[in-house]
Design a protein that fits this description.
478 residues, Elongation Factor Tu (Ef-tu), domain 3, Rossmann fold, Lysin, 3 domains, ten-stranded mixed sheet, six-stranded antiparallel β-barrel
Length: 478
C-alpha cells in the first residue's frame, strides 16, 4: 500500500497536506509529474511542505513520498562548474550524470570524538589576515561588514589564492543577483582559479524555499569532499539574506515570531550548519572544513540579533569597514574589531612575535595620532611611535588580487622596526613597495633567511635585516 498526501490548502509556496502518516521532517514528496516539495512541519493530522519547483499547485493534488531523494552530480566532477541548488548546470557546458548516492538534507555534525586540534594555517595571501587575524584549516571565521566595504573582493581573492594550496573552495550565493555571480566567475576564470572552485548559485529568481535550502545543500557537498580527506573552504554569502528568507517562510506559515520577527529557532537554523566546520580525524574521513559565513551589517554594528548569533557560533570574525574602504584601504579590515580564537595556535613562534609587535604599534599609533597636529612640539619618542604606526598601516595595505607568500609577509612586517624603517617615509615605502616585496621573495639572501624563519626570534630577524639595510634601501626611491 502506497501512502499519499492530498493538498488541502496552498499559501504561496506553502502546502498543507492530509495523509502521509510516515513522513519525517526534510523528507521529499512529489507529484506524479515530478513537482517536488520538502516536509517542513508535522502535526498530528497534517503536514506542511515547501514547494521547491517554480510551478502552481492546486488543492486536491496528490503527493507521494519521494524515496530517491536529492541526486546532484558527483561532487568530484563539479570543480569549475556553476550549479543551482538542485544540481542544474548554469554554465552552459556539457551536462553531468547524477550521483547514484542521494544527498542528505538532515545531517547532524559529527561529535567531538571525531575532531582534531586546528593546527594548520589556511594561507590567504593577505598580510593583515595571515599575520594578525589568522584563519586555521577547520576554523569557522565569520565575515561582517557594511555594503561597499570590500567583503566580496576579499572573498574572491581568498578563493583565487587557494589555487596552489590544495584547497577546494565552494562559493555559495544565497539570493545573490545573477550578474554578481557572472562577475565573480569571470574574475576567477581570468585568475585560473575555477579549477579548484565550485559555485552554487541560488538567485532571487529561484523559489524561496529552494534558496532557504541552499546552505544545507552546500554543507552536504562540502562534507562529501571533506570525508575524502580533502581540505575544503566553504563560503556562504550571505547568512543575513538566508535569515530574512527563513523569517518570510516562518511568518507566512503563521508561526509565532521571535525577536525582530525572526523565527524562534533562528539560532539553531544557523548553528547546526556551522557546527559542521572543523578539522577531522580518520574516524570521520579526515580532512578539514573551513567556513567563511558572510553577513552584511548596518552602521558598523555587531550588536544586533543576527550578528551576535553568528558570533556565538563561530571561532572569530573579520570586520570590514566601509569608512576604511572609502579611504582606499584594501582589505578594509578593522583589526581592532576583528577576532580569531583558534588561528593563533597555527602560527609559528616568529609569526606570533611579529604579530604582537604590529598590534602594539597600531595600538600606540591610535593613541598618539591625535597629537600629530602639534608637529614640532612633539617629543622624538612620540614622533617615532606615530611614524612606525603609519608605516605599519601602509604595509598592511595590499592591491586587490595580490598574493604575498607567508614568509615574505613575516619579513616585510619586520621592516618598520629596522634601521631602514626608522629612515623610510610612508611615501617612499609606497613607491618602492612592489620592488621590496619582490626582493624579499626572490633575492637569494632573503630566501635563505626565509627558510630558517621558524627557528628564529623576532629580534634576530630584525638584526639580520639590519645587516642587509643597504640592499633593502636600494629598492626604495629617495
Amino acid at each position: 500500500m502506497v501512502e499519499v498526501g492530498v493538498v488541502r490548502s496552498v499559501k504561496n509556496y506553502i502546502l498543507t497536506l492530509d495523509g502521509l502518516p510516515s513522513a519525517h521532517l526534510n523528507d521529499l514528496v512529489a507529484t506524479d509529474d515530478g513537482k517536488r516539495a520538502m516536509v517542513s512541519s508535522l502535526t498530528e493530522n497534517q503536514i506542511e511542505a515547501l514547494l521547491l519547483d517554480e510551478t502552481t499547485i492546486k488543492p486536491g493534488e496528490v503527493f507521494h513520498p519521494e524515496k530517491e531523494g536529492f541526486h546532484l552530480p558527483p561532487v568530484e566532477s563539479l570543480r569549475g562548474r556553476i550549479i543551482s541548488p538542485l544540481g542544474r548546470l548554469l554554465d552552459g557546458q556539457s551536462p553531468l550524470p547524477p550521483d547514484p548516492q542521494a544527498l542528505p538534507l538532515d545531517e547532524v555534525a559529527e561529535g567531538i570524538e571525531t575532531r582534531e586540534l586546528v593546527k594548520e594555517q589556511l594561507t590567504t595571501g593577505i598580510t593583515v589576515v595571515d599575520a594578525l587575524i589568522p584563519v586555521g584549516k577547520g576554523q569557522k571565521e565569520a565575515v561582517f561588514g557594511e555594503p561597499r566595504s570590500g567583503k566580496t573582493a576579499f572573498i574572491q581573492d581568498v578563493i583565487i589564492n587557494q589555487k596552489d594550496q590544495a584547497v577546494t573552495c565552494i562559493y555559495t550565493a544565497v539570493g545573490r543577483p545573477e550578474m554578481d555571480i557572472k562577475r565573480l566567475t569571470q574574475k576567477l576564470a581570468a585568475a585560473k582559479a575555477l579549477a579548484h572552485t565550485i559555485i552554487i548559485s541560488a538567485s532571487p529568481q529561484e523559489p524561496i524555499p529552494l534558496i532557504a535550502l541552499t546552505p544545507t545543500i552546500a554543507f552536504a557537498l562540502a562534507n562529501r569532499l571533506r570525508r575524502q580527506g580533502e581540505d575544503v573552504l566553504l563560503v556562504i554569502d550571505d547568512l543575513g539574506t538566508h535569515a530574512k528568507i527563513l523569517r518570510e517562510i516562518a511568518l507566512l506559515s503563521g508561526r509565532i515570531p521571535g525577536r525582530e520577527s525572526y523565527p524562534g529557532d533562528i539560532f539553531y537554523q544557523h548553528a547546526h550548519l556551522i557546527e559542521h566546520g572543523g578539522n577531522y580525524n580518520s574516524k570521520a574521513g579526515g580532512g578539514s572544513l573551513t567556513l567563511l559565513p558572510v553577513m552584511e551589517t548596518e552602521m558598523e554594528g555587531l550588536s544586533y540579533l543576527l550578528p551576535t548569533n553568528l558570533i556565538a557560533s563561530t571561532d572569530g570574525h573579520l570586520f570590514f569597514s566601509s569608512a576604511l574602504y572609502a579611504q582606499g584601504h584594501y582589505p578594509a579590515i578593522a583589526v581592532e574589531k576583528s577576532v580569531t580564537r583558534v588561528g593563533r595556535q597555527t602560527q609559528s613562534g616568529v609569526q606570533k612575535e611579529i604579530s604582537d609587535r604590529v598590534r602594539n604599534a597600531l595600538a600606540d599609533f591610535e593613541e598618539f595620532k591625535t597629537y600629530s597636529v602639534f608637529g614640532a612640539e612633539l617629543s622624538e619618542e612620540t614622533r617615532n611611535v606615530i611614524k612606525t604606526g603609519e608605516l605599519v598601516r601602509e604595509i598592511l595595505k595590499q592591491e586587490p588580487q595580490e598574493n604575498i607568500d607567508l614568509k615574505t609577509q613575516i619579513l616585510i612586517l619586520h621592516l618598520p622596526f629596522t634601521i631602514l624603517g626608522q629612515k623610510l617615509s610612508v611615501e617612499n615605502f609606497r613607491a618602492g613597495r612592489a620592488k621590496l616585496v619582490e626582493m624579499l621573495g626572490t633575492n637569494p639572501t632573503f630566501k635563505a633567511l626565509a627558510v630558517k624563519l621558524d627557528s628564529l626570534e623576532s629580534d634576530e630577524v630584525i638584526n639580520l635585516l639590519n645587516q642587509e639595510s643597504e640592499t633593502l634601501e636600494a629598492a626604495c626611491p629617495k
